[in-house]
What does this fold into?
Amino acid sequence: MPDDQPKPRIFVCYEPDLQSLADRLDAWPNTNADRSAYNNRANTPFDSPAAELVKQSLRAQIESAQVTVCLISKTTHSDEWINWEIETAKSAPRRNGLVGILLHEYNRPPAPMINSGAIFIYFKRDQVERAIEWAATEHPTNEDFILQDN
It folds into this structure.
C-alpha cells in the first residue's frame, strides 16, 4: 500500500489469553485498541442482559473498521463472542473484509468465516500486511483464500 494512503482500520477478535498477540497488530489503526474494555466481554455471559451493552459497543467498533482480523487458536471456533463478532462484521452496512490468522495449521476457523470470502494466513508480519490490504479492497465473495508463502 502506498505510503500516502491511510492504512485500513481493523477490528481484532481474539480470545482473552491471546491479548499479547493481538497487541502485535499495532501497525494498523485499531477500532478496539482498548484491550481491557474488549476483554471485559469474557466476563459477560453471551446471552445475559448485560451482554446487550457489550454487543452495542462492539457493534460500533466492528462497523467502524474496514477489516475484521480473527486470531484463530485451538478453541476459537467455539467462542460465542467471536462467532457473533464475525457475523456482525459480515452483516455490517459496509461489509468488513475478513482475515483469519491461523496460529497453528490444524486450528479450525470459526464457522462464520468459512465460505465467506475470508483470507487465511499464518502469523507472519508480511503475510498479515498483505492480507489486510487485500481484505480492505476485495469485493465480497463466498470464496475463501489461503495466502501462500512465495
About this structure: The beta strands are 10-13, 67-72, 97-102, 119-122, 145-146. The mean pLDDT is 87. Residues 51-63 form the longest helix (13 residues). The chain has one domain: 10-146.
